[in-house]
Amino acid sequence: MAERVARHLVATGHLIDEDAPLALEHAIAARRLASRIASVREAVGLAAYRAGEWQTAISELRTYQRLTGRQTHLAVLADCERALGRPEKAVDMFRAADKAKLTQTEAIELLIVAAGARGDLGQRDAAVAMLQVRELTADSAESWAGRLRYAYADALLGAGRTEEAREWFSRAAEIDEEGTTDAAERLLELDGVNLEDDEDEDDEDGESGESGADGDESDEDYEDDEEDGESDEDDDDLDDDDDDDDDDDDDDDDDYDDEEDDDYEDSDADDESDEDDVDGGGAPVDDVDDEFDDDLDADGVPERKQDERPAAGDAQA
Description:
- By secondary structure, this protein is mostly helical.
- Among the domains are: about 1-70, Serine Threonine Protein Phosphatase 5, Tetratricopeptide repeat, CATH 1.25.40.10; about 75-120, no CATH class; about 130-205, no CATH class.
- It contains 13 helices and no strands.
- Helix 1 runs antiparallel to helix 2.
- The longest helix is centred in the middle third of the chain and has 28 residues, at about 195-220.
- It is globular and about 60 Å long.
- The model is unreliable at about 220-225 and about 225-310 (pLDDT under 50).
């Protein structure tokens, strides 16, 4: 059983960026086999978040938090509250967080989400003020630095401070070498460059260039149609033999998004009851291929940089 759980978890990690719903199916299959394992509940929560199943993500990540005592995914929980139209809860989560227990990355991600929630509430200037922390100008190449600058630029734009927003989108693009944000595209938009129009023109040019060649080849292709017709008929039923392999995947997955917890303030009182609110038995999805046997990588945690601004964990909500 342990091997089956491990294979589903590895599949979840490999698929989460490419096919989040399928990754969620694998995570749920692992949960059926080992519902009291913290890493399993974490995997279900993160896959549900990527698949847009906000309430399921909240339920699973709160359970993970109670099982481990960690606040690792507070930013994800707060973002789920925003997605469900409850930005005030995201702000409350930021206020209630024990900043001393958060890594620098976790603190900054939670700050970014809380500032976005302020913007959702129409408090544009407050969102800008929240993001004015010392890490904003830190000389760091970590991915959180680019996201923090991007969030600050977006908050400035929301507050109507366009020129300042342009400057900070530019500063975000400078250090976002991996393209984790669309800072470069936002900068071009502020400069009046419409990327969609340019792409449409390129597509039209390509289609016009191909039309002439298609006309010249039409006569040559006509004689081959009859021969191709017979071979095409043989391919119609090619995929019919694989249908039976998926019968075990469809039975029990509809119940996973029915779980709802009380607000996070009541989480301590629910420590014993929430561990049991999982699905009963059911058939797991098919085992993944051997390519999923490698271990998942873990990101390192950068150290804080110091200057005169307040730290991300000390920002006022």
